[in-house]
Amino acid sequence: MENKNQYWRGLEELNNDPKFLAGKKHEFAEGIPLEEVFTEEDGDLTSNRRDFLKYFGFGISAVALAACNKTPVKNAIPYIVKPENITPGIPNWYASTCNACAANCSILVKTREGRPIKIEGNADSPVFKGGVCGTGHASLLGLYDNERLRKPRIKGADATWQAIDKEIPTALASSKNVALITGTVNSPSTKKAIAALIAKYPQIKHISYEPFSYGAIAKANKESFGMEVIPGYRFDLAKVIVSFGADFLGTWISPVEYTKQWAKNRSAEDKTMSRHIQIESYLSVTGSNADVRYPIKPSAETAYLISLYNKIAVLAGAPSLGSLPAVELPVNGIENTAKELWANKGQSIVVSGSNSIGAQVVVNAINSLLGNIGNTVDLANYSNQHYSDDAQFASFVNDLSSGAADGVIFYNVNPVYSYSESAKLMEGIKKAKVSISSGSNLDETANLCMYNTPDSHYLESWNDNEPKAGYFTFTQPSISTVFETRQMQESFLLWAGLTTNFYDYMVSNWASTLNGDNWTKAIHDGFYQASVSPVSASFNAAATNGVEASAYELYTTNTKKLELKLYTKVGVGAGEGAHNPWLQEMPDPISKVCWDNYAAISHATAKELKIKDGDKINITFKSGKIESVPVLVQPGQPNNVVAVAVGYGRTAGGKTGLNVGVNAYTAANYSTSQMHMQVDVKIDKAEGSYELAHTQTHHTIEGRAIIKEASLGEYIKDTKAGNHDHHKSLRENGNLITLWSERDIKGHKWTMAIDLNKCTGCGSCVVSCNAENNVPVVGRKEVLNRREMHWIRIDRYYRFRTKDNNFITKEDDYNNESTGVDFENVSVTYQPVMCQQCGHAPCETVCPVLATVHSSEGLNHMAYNRCVGTRYCANNCPYKVRRFNWFKYRDNDQFDFNFNNDLGRMVINPDVTVRSRGVMEKCSFCVQRIQAGKLKAKLENRTLVDGDVKTACQQSCPADAIIFGDINDEKSKVREYFKKDRAYFVLDELNVQPSVAYMTKIRNVNEELVHEKGHSAAKHEAKPEEHKKDEKHAEHHS
Amino acid sequence: MSYESPIRDQLVTGGKTYSDVTRDITRPLENSPSKGWWIGFSLSTVTLALWIGATTYTVLVGLGAWGLNKTVGWAFDITNFVFWVGIGHAGTLISAVLLLFRQKWRMSINRSAEAMTIFAVICAASFILSHMGRPWVAYWPIPLPNAFGTLWVNFNSPLVWDVFAISTYFSVSLVFWYVGLIPDIATVRDRATTKARKFWYGFFAMGWTGSTRTWHRYEVISLILAGISTPLVLSVHSIVSMDFATSLVPGWHTTIFPPYFVAGAIFSGFGMVLTLLVIAREVMNYKDYITEAHLDAMAKVVMVTGTMVGMAYITEFFVAAYSGVEYEQYAFLNRAFGPYWWAYWTMMSCNLIAPQVFWSSKARTNPTVLFIMSIIVNIGMWFERFVIIVTSLHRDFIPANWAMYTPTITEVTILIGSFGLFFFLFFLFIKFLPSINMAEVKSIIPTHAHEDEHQHHGHSHELATEKGVLHGN
Lengths: 1038, 473
Hints:
The complex is a heterodimer of chains A (1038) and B (473).
Chain A: H1 11-14, H2 18-24, H3 34-39, H4 49-70, E1 92-97, E2 106-112, E3 115-121, H5 134-143, E4 153-154, E5 157-158, H6 161-174, E6 178-182, H7 188-200, E7 204-208, H8 215-225, E8 230-233, E9 240-244, H9 255-264, E10 275-280, H10 285-289, E11 292-295, H11 301-316, H12 333-343, E12 348-352, H13 357-369, E13 377-383, H14 390-402, E14 407-411, H15 415-418, H16 422-431, E15 434-437, H17 444-448, E16 451-452, E17 463-468, E18 471-475, H18 488-495, H19 502-510, H20 517-525, E19 527-529, H21 547-557, E20 563-567, H22 581-584, E21 593-594, E22 599-601, H23 603-609, E23 615-621, E24 624-633, E25 641-645, E26 677-678, E27 682-689, E28 693-694, E29 709-711, H24 712-717, H25 726-732, E30 750-755, H26 764-772, H27 779-784, E31 793-802, E32 807-808, H28 811-815, E33 821-833, H29 842-846, E34 852-854, E35 860-862, H30 872-875, E36 883-884, E37 920-921, H31 927-939, H32 952-956, E38 962-966, H33 973-979, E39 983-984, E40 996-999, E41 1001-1003, H34 1015-1019
Parallel strand pairs in A: 6-7, 6-14, 9-10, 9-12, 10-11, 14-15, 15-16, 20-25, 22-24, 29-41, 30-40
Antiparallel strand pairs in A: 1-2, 2-3, 4-5, 4-16, 8-13, 17-18, 18-19, 20-26, 21-28, 22-25, 23-24, 23-27, 30-38, 31-32, 31-33, 34-35, 36-37, 39-40
Helix pairs in contact in A: 5-26, 7-18, 8-13, 11-12, 11-13, 11-21, 14-16
Chain B: H1 18-30, H2 35-61, H3 76-100, H4 110-130, H5 158-191, H6 195-205, H7 212-245, H8 257-283, H9 292-323, H10 326-337, H11 341-353, H12 361-365, H13 367-394, H14 409-432, H15 438-442, H16 465-471
């Protein structure tokens, strides 16, 4: 039925207008102006309501979607189910082993919420006794290196481990001669895994290669004693230490172990300090700490050793080596050394850093003549911390380039960078059928290899090491692998066709010795000490045959010629640390240069060659050239010797190390026995100049009583020798008049003592502090601008003598030619300086906003959030220990170091605030550790005892030079130190009442040191010393 | 309307009448600016833009944009701050101290000297802000009640004293200057031809009627403000000097600083007044108001204060030698013969030696000599602060910390730019406000009273509102 009521939409409908009828068929009378909208020819948008809704809807959802992606959401998600062993805020400690170098120190790894954030020494270790070097501390950062390989690679493309494990065994099987190049391998399980691999593929040959080799020591011992090992040196048992260029406190073999030993006998209170004589070709950390130091040319070393042997032989009534004329050091150095050694036979030690077998044989002869073998030179507790076979590696390179070898596996070594004949090796690798590198970064070698099988960081791995005979130290992972890396031992096992993982493999290896609880205990302790069988070794005199002639020839033909000496620096070392920003920014202990190596040249030689600081030189030698090396005129450097550190000039492996310094390995000539030197070099000035980034540019104390020193003789006569300070005596007698009321601190009062006698300047504390306190890395440019952020620095001062034997401590004087300074003979003192936590802190009074205030425990606190950044406090700090955040050092591409990426920031210690731009910061005496110690004691319902709280610098010091504690605790060690007659405060006369006491440096020398102290101190000497005027130049020997 | 002995030189020359004074002084306000003004104003605007750019850059990237380092924590920033604060002192001295001493010659120069004070303090304050690591919390050194509990400022800190000193100085100077301006603004208001001018000048004239009662109030308040300002002449720079004197940095830690800084401030302030007035005399044709006698008097002040600071320099050496403190002794030897010897000898020759030329009266009245000398004085005084700050800090107690300081382009730009800020404000001032105190000058014209004729020049200046911008903050 039709609806009766008809409604028209308009007259058109009623009239049946044809136009209307046509339009009626469409839903919309006017049609949708789609074309109009989408073509937009006239640019005139005539959207209607529907379009508006459409666009609006789309727009809203698009904006909403876009907004979702705009800011990355950073969530900190709490544990929903708390893991058994992880309590947020409470650190977990794992005993492990440092694999930064083959010294393999036992360490403890501090983890927070599953992240390793700090490395400390394992104080229970009988060998390493809780010390860690700077390189060890910094190796933590390697775990969070943003440029680590994240996956295995095949021919430059990312691959899977499955593919790797499929291809490599086939490739190995089809090769006829493969070399497995490793560094020093002293892990029994790793050795066994390698043996398993070799058992599967007998064509594999294992070759040990070290970039900076000391392989000659073991070789010489084989010739001398029939044992191819590096002996266990006992510097702690030696009353006289004679080192020919062995930097045993800095870089040589096991510096932490040796520093612990050396420091034991450097305590002045015992009044029987060891006597340390260093004869060397560059100013090393060890040489700078020696009592007597003779600069020599590197070519002369063996000749001097032979002369020393002959002088001792005369005293011992033994036949001398050969009949060539003796060579002698100034002021009968060799003869006097011989006398001293002979007087302490059985309690002395002679070591040499040379990589010449002949030199090492003579060292053995001397030690054996002195009866040191079995005493200070322990062949039973020998060292596995260094092993390399230079000759074998050299022949492998020849084989590889000639095609005789067709495969190579590089296990954490980078010879393409560090081998002197790198080009030949590169060519060989390219030719090889199979080349594998386990390098964790794409370094020079890994770049060339077909397969990259990135090794896990040692903090992600299992391992066992035997650094010393019978001393096993275990590595346990403290984090699961961050990336898809696999520890190389596991790869070895897999490729050998074994299916066990490396941990089980290791456990089964140990099953016979350590099972059940013993194994757990060993892993918990981190080490296991097995007994060693005694060794009776006698020196084979025949080993010295033929040594003297070549040594004497080398000595005589090179007396006037320039020589090049290569050495390794503390920190970057042989180059492994080059891409580690903490190590690059750690100042060299001697030169205080960061981010570079350089050519160290003596003043006289520089003058002769007409070159000066900042010039660039080319060093030409027989087999090559090192180009454009910046010059550093270095006091203590022997004349006519230029010393260049290896380990720099990396071309791959991480942006931090790229193009930092020059590669000096080209001069490490493997074809002769003298690897670390070049004789007869030519130096000419290169284009341009270059400014090195120093953290210290003034080198003397300017006669100020900042450093106090005395000779052992003076100290024995008067324990206050060198420390008769006017202000100190005023204070001690209660005669000090002060405007200020004294603070009376009843509870804890935190103080620190620093024994200048023991500090070797190694810089371990600096890196440790960086890690503990989230100190940012600022880079070379900012170091040049004198804006490094380190909370602790080690000031290094030189003292010179004139030809008339006067001390020179003023820079104007030594720059003045008429004073005739002997720059070769330099006396070096180190002084670690951190915030002195003054009782009357000058920084506190000047801060307008009370951002730095005194605590009830004698600490000078810094409230970063309150700081407005006027820098008045830093200006008023007489010690200049305050550091200002000139820039934002995190999330800033200008400072592209570990704080600029999420991975790198994982190393941040959550207990320490990361400082923002524009605020002041400084050493806090590790206040977070003090709090943690107090909390722990409180939880255990006891009072704090000495040693509960250790600052980061103190804990890491291999020399135990830093003592921290509560001076109000009568049993504390620091209190004992403060009471010592050697104790003095730097700038005591300002009466800022610092909480850091320094101990007068006592040198085991016979000359008088006291009378030439800073004149203000000398003036106020309570007991005037008798000043002998008849002193001879340089050193007297008893 | 004062009696001057006929043997004295006339304070206003050229036989000016009251109407002449009004006409002469309001001329720049009521006419289009001269070419000279435009050139100066454009130059200073460009320089101001440099200042804005460099300061903004510093605030954006951090103080690392400057050449400071771990050893030298202050350099150009505080040098500039002290320099500008010092400049300000002459203004206060002229307007307050000379008012109290009834030195009538000051009347024609006090207005611009006071304006100079205010602008110089603004420049100085800009350095307080920009030298801070976190300028966005610059209000923290002000003891404001806050919700942070016991958070308060450190009243021991000289920087807090500075906050009080500078803010007091600025506010008192501003009030003093403004009160002095009221009768003159009223004059301009009465001469105004446009509504805008009438409104704005009327607004700032605060209903000045010129009645005896208002004149009486005016005289009283001027005297009171002069009384308040006078100690400020001594206190402000004494307190600024305590930033250094109360520290223990060798070269800063010295009791001679307060008087020495005050003398230096007056010295540099008069230097700047001379620079400005020698220009203004020429550009604005105010030679009859700022006469040679003015120049002569100011030159004498410059010579006396310059010799005073010179004596302070020498005294410091004596004290260092006599003290027996090796750090102090080294600090002063290092100043004169260390790596910054050139800065020290620039200071010495500019501040002590050069002003001795004013023993000659010809030099004292020769505008060219005076202009050159005024620049020399300002260079010297800038270097004095640089020497004190940088050479003391860069080699203090522990030689291992010794470092050199080199300014960056940013710092140099900010220094130059601060002159832009100063002159930008100054040019606006001479355009929109009577730069000579008409009311007071009329009291010292040597003739009898004339009938004051209001002459309407008919030039309208819509720019009048900008005066509000200038003084409203």
